[in-house]
Hints:
Structural class: alpha/beta
Helix content: 25-40%
Radius of gyration: 19 Å
Strand content: 15-25%
Bound molecules: S-adenosylmethionine, iron/sulfur cluster
CATH topology: TIM Barrel
CATH architecture: Alpha-Beta Barrel
Shape: globular
CATH class: Alpha Beta
Amino acid sequence: MFDQYERDINYLRVSITDRCNLRCTYCMPKEGLSRIGHDDILRYEEIHRIIRVAAGLGITKVRITGGEPLVRRGVAEFIASLRAIPELKDVSLTTNGILLDGCAENLFAAGIRRINISLDSLDAEKYARITRGGDIRDVLRGIRKVRETGFSPIKINIVAIKGFNDDEVLDFARLTLENPYQIRFIELMPLGHAGIENNGRYLSNAIIRERIETVGRLEPVDGRGNGSDGPARIYRLTGGAGEIGFISPVSRHFCRTCNRLRLTAEGHLRACLLSDDETDLKGPLREGCADGEIKKLIRGAISRKPEQHEIACNERHIKKCMKEMQEIGG
Ligand code: SAM
Ligand code: SF4
């Protein structure tokens, strides 16, 4: 389905929980957040129904995210149930990787192939610091397991943070020389509680790229260096087994080609990550509305999708989105 700016909206990111087993400093306050009550979280059957109706409107790709999706019981069975929706061509997952070792085989059997794993440092002590207590060994075991199990592509997401992991850029980049991972640098966005604080720690992808180019040439992969592969610009260090991606929501808006909708864990549809305009689907759903009503609400949300968001790297012009990333679904 096309919006008023002729963008084909075919991708839905679904947060299945706002809960998380980590507390990344840029994403959550240390005490965690007041959680959405158990009854207010969409049940799997409700999420399934919304995805089915959205697929009837042209959604062909779904990414399961959170919070941390793997903390919700029954996630693999839920993902397997999405096979019953014929229009869906691709279901993928974003995870912090902590529980991945134990879940990988079930997720693979459920049909997941494409997986994104967040890892903001390769140093155990720094990883524990940024995640407020995470054990990097769990994530590394998870990454090994998904590789052995046959997932592909395996994408590793690094949020670039000035003064924290800028000294690790080259170590991350070098990983792609030997390993078939796509290492993706994501610019820190001014979201939620940490919005203003995050702003001073922002590091542009242009700087990261410059540093990587001191060790090797970055060759655009199949034309994807120009942004035709969604928001990431993809490169390869000459001779490398893996790829390096840059996702630059702050310095280089990808709004013009944004094809996404997001469903929050409490059943609200967001047409833009960085606009707090939400459409409640859970209320009508629980009042017993027909599929036609859900369709109307989804169409309405798409019709209000803004042309572009307003964050910018100029620190004097900063528009903060009030919701936390783990509530919205990153
Ligand atoms: N818990 C899972 C994880 O960490 O991968 C899935 C949810 S998390 C909200 C999804 C992605 O959003 C992660 O890669 C995380 O690093 C990223 N993220 C969270 N807050 C962010 C921010 N303020 N700016 C940029 N990326 C952010
Ligand atoms: Fe949890 Fe992911 Fe947010 Fe970290 S980034 S606190 S792992 S939801």
